[in-house]
Amino acid sequence: MADYNIFIYGEAEISYLKKRDKRLAEVIDKVGPIERKVIPDLFAALINSIVGQQISTKAHKTIWEKMVTALGEITPHVIDRLSDEELQRFGITFKKAAYIKSAAQKVLSGEFEIEALRTMPDEDVCTKLVELDGIGVWTAEMLMLFSMQRRNIFSFGDLALLRGMRMVYHHRVINKQLFTRYKKRFSPYASVASLYFWAVAGGAIIMEIEEKIKAVRNRDKSYRYKFFVAVKTTKIVCTPDCPAKPLEKNIVFYDTLNDALQTGYRPCKICMKEEYHDY
After folding, report:
1. What are phi and psi for residue 206, nearest 5 degrees?
2. Rounded Cα distance, 47 and 273, in Å
3. pLDDT digits (tens, 9 = 90+) for 186-224
């Protein structure tokens, strides 16, 4: 069977990230420690990454579990003995089956020295891996994070990571320039930041959103200025206790008034008279 472990991080990484970013600090406190599985064996991890390309997390997990149950160890020899058709029976596409077979054959022949990756810097690991058929930058980055446990991996090609960041920072779009600024902020522990953004994207703090909706429904004055409610249809931002009651499907939440204003909203003249006149 494939061996698993968890991504190791501790107080040093957490303290650093919390000092560097207030919002990420709040996420870390709410989510708590994350135990994310890693696959120490590089070849098994490589195959796992190929299987996971462009499919949902659930589908990825299902296919991988079928493979591990049927094959036991995922080694170059085991994979090389399988036909493309046998691989496809696990739910793998024709192209992925070809990529997996090619990787096994190159490792067995010595054309690709997979263990040599362990001593290479991140950029060289990525460059070397993309020489393999079907391996792009995202797959290389996932291997570095979820097998090699490299500390500073932050993947612009990962849609779930970007979704988690948008949820935390309320950006409509995160372009490469903005993404690079965030990576610089989180370096040299961007891998740990990645774990928390993935957790957010997966709904790890969904109860906070439900709590905010409840506060808006009840016009709860105790939540005034703790967060802000922006109405997409009118481009107005309100406090949770505003007498006006917009449709829930038309609202988004912001942690600060300034964030909402920078996104193009203006203060409500009913619940934020002072801010409205200063705007």
Report:
1. -65, -30
2. 59
3. 999 999 999 999 998 887 775 467 778 888 888 988 788
Q: pTM of the prediction?
A: 0.73
DSSP the chain: ----EE----HHHHHHHHHH-HHHHHHHHHH-----EE--SHHHHHHHHHHTTTS-HHHHHHHHHHHHHHHSS--HHHHHTS-HHHHHTTT--HHHHHHHHHHHHHHHHTSS-GGGGGGS-HHHHHHHHTTSTT--HHHHHHHHHHTS--S----TT-HHHHHHHHHHH--S---HHHHHHHHHHHTT-HHHHHHHHHHHHTTTTHHHHHHHHHHHHHT-GGGBTTBEEEETTTTEEE-TT-SS---GGGEEEESSHHHHHHTT-EE-TTT-HHHHHH-
Per-residue pLDDT tens for 36-62? 999 999 999 999 999 999 888 889 999
Distances (CA, A) of 272 to 89, 103, 108, 233, 247: 61, 61, 68, 18, 19
Shortest CA distance to 140 belongs to which of 164, 156, 162?
A: 156
Q: Which two tokens stand for residue 225?
A: 């200025």
Q: 102-131 in b/e burial notation, b at 16+ Cβ within 10 A?
A: bbbebbeeeebebeebeeeeeeebbebbee
**CA pseudo-torsion sign 15, 19, 24, 26:** positive
How long, in residues, is the chain? 279
**Whole-angstrom Cα distance, residue 254 to residue 263?**
10
Q: Partners of 266 in the beta sheet?
A: 236
